[in-house]
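Q: Hand in one record:
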Amino acid sequence: MKLYDFPNAPNPKRVKIFANEKGIELELVTCDMRKGEHKSSEFLKKSPSGKIPVLELDDGRCISESVAICRYLEAIFPEPNLLGASPFEMGHIEARNRHIEFEMWREIGISWVNGPIVAQLGIVKQIPEAKAASDVAARNYYERLDLEFAQNAYVAGDRFTIADISLYTAIEFASAMVDLKPESSLKKLNAWYESVRSRPSIAVLAQ
């Protein structure tokens, strides 16, 4: 299986971490977003939205969207389980992951689009007020997470799941690219982050 990737892009990284947790080897194919390769007519046949990651199966069929790809990988490699082992756990993990995507990633995305790195590209008209609001919303969510980690070791309970992968990549990207690193006073959140960052599935990507 081939995974269309771009170095350090957060969504492909979610899939790579997920696959590493399961011991799945994927052939990585770089899709250079700086050159617009993700918008080429050939790539759009694989992903009509023109986004990465895309998983290409051995028979040429393709699956786009990081969570959808992870669902496929979980179906063919069910252990270790990362999406839920019981009906309740599946629903709970799904809910927690969607919280991260809609309440954390959304705000980080707004701050990114209206931030200094994208400003240098000159491709969008930025709205400083939008960034100010999303920065506040992201930091408020960090505070919520810090309280939640006082009750649970991981995002969705007592074990590592896809929800932790989503949160880890969100904080890593926000810290490095959006100037939204969690405050040092958020002890529980930062302890969770350091613990997760040391997992072999994640640490190997930094090598």
